[in-house]
Design brief:
This protein is of the alpha+beta class and 494 residues long. 63% of the residues lie in helices and 15% in strands. It is built from eleven helices and ten strands. Strand 1 and strand 2 form a beta hairpin. 18% of the residues are buried.
């Protein structure tokens, strides 16, 4: 608990200062600084004055007490010698009456007996015992004595010829009263100076904060989008320079914003036109592939089937052996033709993509691809977290990207292993295709302006990804294989 309190005490001033810097208005800060400095200056003057005045008045009081003691001792010595006790009493009372600081006068003979004093009802208890009388004393001795009304200077003056002593008690009450009165006057003067200083600080802060407040209001308006705001601050001081800099900044910002909005509008128009054209091209391409696939399947397939049946009947003629052999050959050719037509139809537009969805279509395509590339190991891994099917155009895009990527692998990569990872998530689709082939220099290939097959394939995959607001990335180095990353958003997609 003690450690916690010490820790809080250590950081409390810094936290208070930081809070004042952050939350207190500038006017209050300026007036507070002026008031604090004037208070510190006034307090320093009062403390220094009291210290100096105390030293001066205390020294004067000591000298005065010694002077009065010497005078009383000179006059009392003759009265003691003649035994005039009445004169001694009158002298003691007269000294007290004439000097308000004198509290007591004690006249003592050589034997130490009190022969005269100024007290009418007896001496206060313990006053005589405050100090010892020394016959060897030849000079004035002054000590300070505590009393109910404060310090008293007790002055002991020896009489000549060892005839006795005189004790004078001088009070510091009058001195302290004088010092306190002067301190109060200085405090009132300091208070007046503080009031004048605060008034001056208020005027100064008003002159400073008024243009600053204009700058703050204009800055808030600019931050909210009103770039036409300007501040009218004259002068050639720092605040005037700041106002002119702000106006110049606002003008430049307004001009740049207008130019940016114009460029952005033009860019958006071009992007919209480009995406519309690209969408039309891809849609037309897919529609054409559907039409060709349907025609090949319906017309050529039926024709070849009829041809097979006719050839089979022809082969059943027993009287012509050679004709049967030829018919059998023709039937085999027809079967091969039918398989090729079917394979072409699948490549153009697999019906399983429309009927069963993307995952099944990819599995069948990978299986067929393995059969054709028997020396290559292909791994398809699907992580499906989506209950519903993807949009038809997105499934087509992903299928075509996989198809184009595997085609490039077969033609150029010389790979042994290919890995395909498909992640279907509610927020988007991630497709990763990785091979261990010969790789290539990505920057060089992307910067080429030729019309090669590889460039067209990569550009097509990139355009298909951009159509759905997705990203297409390539990582490859010569001799280290190639990895394609495709990310298509499902939420908030264009």
């Amino acid at each position: 608990m003690i450690k916690t309190m010490k820790h809080m005490a250590k950081y409390f001033p810094s936290q208070v200062i930081q809070k004042i810097q952050e939350e207190v208005p500038l006017t209050v800060k300026i007036m507070g600084i002026v008031g604090v400095f004037i208070c510190l200056l006034g307090l320093t003057v009062i403390i220094d004055m009291r210290s100096n005045m105390t030293k001066i008045l205390d020294d004067q009081l000591r000298k005065r007490a010694i002077t009065i003691g010497n005078e009383v001792a000179t006059e009392s010595m003759n009265l003691i010698l003649v035994g005039d006790l009445i004169g001694l009493y009158e002298k003691a009372k007269t000294v007290v009456l004439l000097n308000e600081d004198v509290r007591y006068v004690l006249i003592i003979d050589e034997k130490g007996y009190l022969v005269a004093h100024n007290f009418g009802h007896g001496i206060p208890v313990g006053l005589l015992e405050l100090r010892q009388l020394e016959k060897e004393l030849t000079e004035v001795d002054v000590i300070e004595v505590d009393s109910e009304e404060g310090n008293i200077l007790d002055v002991l003056v020896p009489l000549g010829g060892d005839t006795g002593w005189v004790r004078i008690g001088m009070s510091e009450v009058s001195m302290n009263r004088t010092i306190n009165t002067l301190s109060i006057k200085l405090m009132l003067t300091t208070l007046g100076i503080i009031i004048l200083g605060l008034f001056g600080g208020f005027i100064m802060s008003h002159l400073l904060t008024r243009p600053i407040k204009r700058l703050v209001d204009a800055s808030i308006a600019v931050a909210e989008g009103d770039l036409s705001q300007r501040v009218s601050i004259g002068g050639h001081d720092e605040i005037g320079q700041l106002g002119r800099s702000f106006n110049g900044m606002a003008e430049n910002l307004e001009r740049y914003t207008q130019e940016r909005e114009a460029l952005l509008a033009e860019l958006m128009d071009k992007e919209q036109v480009r995406q519309q054209l690209l969408n039309k091209v891809i849609s037309a391409q897919e529609e054409e592939r559907k039409r060709i696939a349907r025609e090949l399947h319906d017309e050529a397939g039926q024709s070849l089937t009829s041809l097979i049946i006719g050839l089979k009947l022809l082969g059943q003629q027993n009287d012509i052996v050679q004709a049967r052999s030829m018919a059998e050959d023709l039937r085999k050719v027809a079967y091969l033709t039918l398989e090729d037509v079917h394979r072409l139809a699948v490549e153009l537009r697999p019906t399983v993509l429309d009927d069963m969805g993307l995952v099944v279509a990819l599995e069948r395509y990978v299986t067929e691809y393995k059969r054709q590339q028997d020396i290559m190991v292909i791994d398809l891994e699907v992580h499906n977290q989506v209950k519903e099917r993807l949009p038809s155009e997105m499934e087509t895009t992903l299928y075509r990207i996989v198809q184009e990527a595997l085609t490039n692998v077969a033609k150029y990569a010389k790979a042994r292993n290919v890995s395909i990872v498909l992640e279907l998530r509610p927020e988007g689709v991630n497709l990763i295709i990785e091979d261990d082939g010969i790789g290539f220099d990505v920057e060089q290939v992307l910067s080429e302006r030729t019309q090669g097959r590889q460039n067209l394939g990569l550009a097509g995959m990139q355009e298909r990804s951009a159509l759905f607001g997705g990203t297409f990335e390539i990582e490859s180095e010569p001799g280290r294989g190639t990895t394609l990353y495709v990310r298509l958003p499902l939420k908030g997609r264009p």
